[in-house]
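Lesson 9: reading folded outputs for more than one chain in a single document. The general rule is that every protein is listed as its sequence immediately followed by its C-alpha cells, and records are never interleaved. Here is the first one.
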Amino acid sequence: MRKMLSAAAAFATAATAVVAMSGAAQAAPAGNSTVYGCLSGNVCIWAEGVNPIDDPHPTVQYTSYGAHNLSNQFGNHWVLNNQYGGATASLCNNYGGTNCYKTLAQDEWAYENLTPVNSITLNRP
C-alpha cells in the first residue's frame, strides 16, 4: 500500500511540474494590449512625422522573429516594440539584421530617423 501511495505521489508531482512548465513556455499577454493600432506581439512603425496618438494606424507591423529589411522608410518615425514575454527589437544599419545600433525592450518606444536604418530584427527572449 505504501509503494502504491508513493508512486501516486510521485506521478502527481511530475504531472504538476509538466503543467507548470508548459504554462510558462506558452505565456501570452493578458487581455488585449493593442497600442495605437499596433497589435500585441508586433513591432510597429508609423508613417514619417505621424504621432501615433493622432493617427493610430501603423504603416508597418512585423509579426515574426528574425530580420526584416526596410524599404522607403526615410526621416523620423515612431517605432514601438509591442512584443511580450521579454522579446526585444533591434534597429540595424545593414540589411539582414546586421550592424544593429539600438535595441528596444518590451513596450519601449523610439522616435528614430530611419533613413540610415535598413533592417529591424525581432529577437526571441
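And here is the second record, again sequence then C-alpha cells.
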Amino acid sequence: MRDTVNWVTACHLDDIEQEGAIRFDHAGRTYAIYRAPDDSVYCTAGLCTHEAIHLADGLVMDYEVECPKHSGAFDYRTGEALRLPACANLKTYAVEVVQGEVRVAL
C-alpha cells in the first residue's frame, strides 16, 4: 500500500517576504515557512529546539534562521543546528507552490 501525503495549504507565496518567515499553525502544531533569496520555499518545525521559541519571529538571512531569544541558528533547508545553544536539528517538511499557494506535506 502506498503512503499518501497530506498537502495542506499554509499561505500564499506573496505572504512571505523574500528572506523572511511566517508562522503557520495546523492541528495543534506550529511550523515556520521560509522564503529563500532565490524564492524557493521551505518549512520546518516552528519552535527552536533549545527553548521552544517561535522561529518565525527570528532573523532570516540567506538560508539561516536565528532564534530570537538566544541566537541559536539553523539551516532551514535541512533543519541542521548551526550555532549553540541550539544543538538538536529541526524537523523539515516538503513544500510545493501551486498557483501561488504554498502547500506543506504534513
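What the second record shows: The mean pLDDT is 94.
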